Amino acid sequence: MGLHTEIWMSMALFAFVSSVTPGPNNLMLLSSGVNFGVRATLPHMLGISCGHFVMLMAVGLGLGELFLRMPNFYQAMKVLSMTYMLYLAWGIAKSAAPQNQAGDMAGAKPLGFLGAAAFQWVNPKAWVMTLGYFGTYMPQDADVTLIALASLVFSLINVPCIGAWAVMGARMRHYFEIDLYRRVFNGTMAVLLVASMAAGLLTR
């Protein structure tokens, strides 16, 4: 079955707004752009979009409803997400200034494709985005083709939205060439990441 043009436009707007607004993914991309540059952050960006696409497909096919009916799994996911988030926040806080113009980091490296993809499954905002997207716009009798198309539309909109945060971070790099300023920025981003995750975890 198909959807009306107005529904597709509403879905596209939802995807844009939820993707471009601040959240754990975008805060990490902003920090990675500052510390590593856009090129080194590309695997992180692609991992977010691909990981979220898999989540969209899984939820669209009914996996999300199964998870929501398993309270023990829900609680375990919250503990796992907070633990992993603290690990990532610590890595951001400890990022040092680049050793050379290529942006190699001392004792740090950008989050890779697989790590970023896996993070989506413990990211509260990703769950809210996914469940809201399908719960609001997708009919219950949607077939695999429609679910795949809706997931692809979301992901295609998501890529440039999150990429803008990495680009913005890269454009800010020259402001943080002084090590003290960079450390203050990274510490602030780590705190904001923890706060954004905590806020999401407090909502059901």
The ordered H/E elements are HHHHHHHHH
Largest sheet: none
Query: Helix segment count?
Result: 9
Low-confidence runs (pLDDT<50, min 5 residues)? 99-106
Q: Mean pLDDT across all residues, rounded?
A: 82
- The overall strand count is 0
How helix-rich are the residues, as a percent range? over 70%
From the helix content, strand content and strand pairing, which structural class follows? Answer: mainly alpha
- What is the end-to-end distance? 31 Å
C-alpha-based Rg, rounded = 18 Å
Question: Can you put this structure into words, describing what you see?
Answer:
With 204 residues, this protein is mostly helical. It has a domain at 33-75 and 98-175. Helices cover 75% and strands 0% of the residues. It is built from 9 helices and no strands. Helix 3 packs across helix 6 (113-119). It is globular. The model is unreliable at 99-106 (pLDDT under 50).
Brief account:
The chain is an all-alpha fold and 204 residues long. It has nine helices and no strands.
Describe this protein with a few key phrases.
204 residues; mainly alpha; 9 helices; globular
List the helices and strands and how they pair.
Blueprint: H1 5-20, H2 24-36, H3 38-60, H4 63-68, H5 71-93, H6 113-119, H7 124-137, H8 144-171, H9 179-201
